[in-house]
Amino acid sequence: MFRVQLRMRIKAGCEAEFERVWQEVGDSVTDHPANLGQWLARSLDEDGVYYITSDWTDEERFREFERSERHLTHRQKLHPYRSDGSMVTMRIVAALTGRGTR
């Protein structure tokens, strides 16, 4: 599995609108056949900071999506809300399931 994590700082006062638009355009990511899911998390430690995590079957298929028109459209809809951001990619090497999921 291949994981992508974005860190985004959202402009002050735009947080609720950003969350709404993220929900609206999310299927442009999750409808891709190689996408395993994505999550939006709001930091409790930093005002206006969000983390978007998405899992993919493999890096090649993610990079295919990243270069697509679908991704460009998705980014254009979210870009007006952010003041900065960064991306980290990783390969999952192990996973443990917590008791609460059993």
Automatic annotation (TrEMBL):
Domain ABM: 2-90
Keywords, in A-Z order: Monooxygenase, Oxidoreductase
Signal peptide residues on this chain, from the entry's feature table: none
Pfam families: ABM
SUPFAM superfamilies: Dimeric alpha+beta barrel
InterPro entries (UniProt xref): ABM_dom (IPR007138), Dimeric_a/b-barrel (IPR011008)
PROSITE patterns to which the protein is assigned, alphabetical: ABM
MF annotations from Gene Ontology: monooxygenase activity
Source superkingdom: Bacteria
Entry EC number(s): 1.14.-.-
Keyword Oxidoreductase appears in the UniProt entry: yes
Enzyme class: oxidoreductase
Protein name (Swiss-Prot/TrEMBL): Antibiotic biosynthesis monooxygenase family protein
Source organism per UniProt: Kutzneria chonburiensis
